[in-house]
């Protein structure tokens, strides 16, 4: 073997034995991938990042993986140029990007060049946003400008021991995976870097290749779970068996978001029946973000409504909660993907309008037979509609409950809503899957164009 061949073998072994390389092997089919600019150097050593392409479930994916063991994964000009090239290729080919972050920041002696490097990377992350899926895996430290870059992805997945912050966290618990999950920054938290990368592999396989590609199709088994009370149970009763992947579970106590498949095709699921009765500002933000992501890649959105409405209090009003509520309504109204809603329980006031209102916020709306659809909470409606009947009652509370039950069984019933055209059909729980399949099939050719504009100015 000549000297050049020996050197090539030595360089390849160095790369293949790195932490960054091992993490990429977790992502790609059979652990195989091809490096891009494999031997570029940063100063007198390797650049501290591997950029590569390979296949995930048979579909091409680009990825970069930083290595904190090489100069602490410090980002320099060469390092950034490798990553930028990856994003440019993704833009040209319409191919998803998985970013595995593990860097302590920029070269200390990089000066203003480091700022330019991060600026270029942020620009390209934004350029391909909504064009190709982007998933960020925080496998070690991700701080400062890199944190902004990672957070610009469609989804962030963290190892539970990873660190994710803008500036060094001085408050106990800040910068941890736990805090990122609670704030809605991280969609998933995994036990270690291997599990985190494997979660990214599963997630990217459920997403279309790009904004012009159809949703992926999988082999599937019919659901085996019976209809239940919780959001998880309801979804499992109509989604393909073992296909549900919940996201942002620790953010927003009244909402549930997940990807699943029906007849092997990916859908996005939003449910408002989790642990709280009313939607908070966090829930509105969580749902709006998820719906916009689904819409960017034409993934059908299935919404399950069981909520008393939006949480209203002096404290929440002062915190600007109405802005988040308007953002949620805007996200649904602007989305042109297929939107199908099922009222599975309560649907009161503005929440019904925002989540299941026909034409703008839902293409088809179904209600279960025992659903309650009302412009006001039944107890409040009784005060307005049956005020005379409440007068003179010996037990006002008991009479109010009696009248509320009468109102829910009559004026606020699912059948009454169907008679007035507010819902398309009234169904039984065991009919959800069949209705969903039929609606997706008939709406598959949906073509909607919004008014020409750069974008909506939603209240972020």
Write the SSE topology.
Blueprint (H helix, E strand, L loop, with lengths): L2 H14 L2 H9 L5 E4 L4 E2 L2 E2 L2 E8 L2 E8 L10 H17 L3 E5 L10 H16 L6 E5 L2 E3 L1 H7 L3 E5 L3 E3 L11 H6 L5 E3 L2 H14 L24 H8 L6 E3 L8 E7 L2 E7 L6 E2 L1 H16 L4 E7 L1 E2 L3 H5 L2 H14 L4 E10 H8 L7 E5 L3 E3 L3 H8 L1 H4 L5 H14 L4 H6 L5 E3 L4 H11 L18
Parallel strand pairs: 5-6, 6-7, 7-9, 8-10, 9-11, 14-16, 15-17, 16-18, 18-19, 18-20, 19-21
Antiparallel strand pairs: 1-4, 2-3, 4-5, 12-13, 13-14
Helix pairs in contact: 2-7, 3-4, 4-5, 9-11, 13-15
Describe the model:
The structure is a single chain. The protein is of the alpha/beta class. 38% of the residues lie in helices and 21% in strands. It is built from 17 helices and 21 strands. The chain has helices spanning 3-16, 19-27, 77-93, 112-127, 145-151, 177-182, 193-206, 231-238, 281-296, 314-318, 321-334, 349-356, 378-385, 387-390, 396-409, 414-419, 432-442; strands at 33-36, 41-42, 45-46, 49-56, 59-66, 97-101, 134-138, 141-143, 155-159, 163-165, 188-190, 245-247, 256-262, 265-271, 278-279, 301-307, 309-310, 339-348, 364-368, 372-374, 425-427. The strands form 5 sheets. Strands 12, 13, 14, 16, 18, 19, 20 and 21 form an 8-stranded mixed β-sheet that branches. A 7-stranded mixed β-sheet has the order 1-4-5-6-7-9-11, with helices on both faces. Strand 6 (97-101), helix 4 (112-127) and strand 7 (134-138) form a beta-alpha-beta unit. Helix 4 packs parallel to helix 5 and helix 13 (378-385) crosses helix 15. The longest helix is centred in the N-terminal third of the chain and has 17 residues, at 77-93. It is elongated, with a radius of gyration of 25 Å. 46% of the residues are buried.
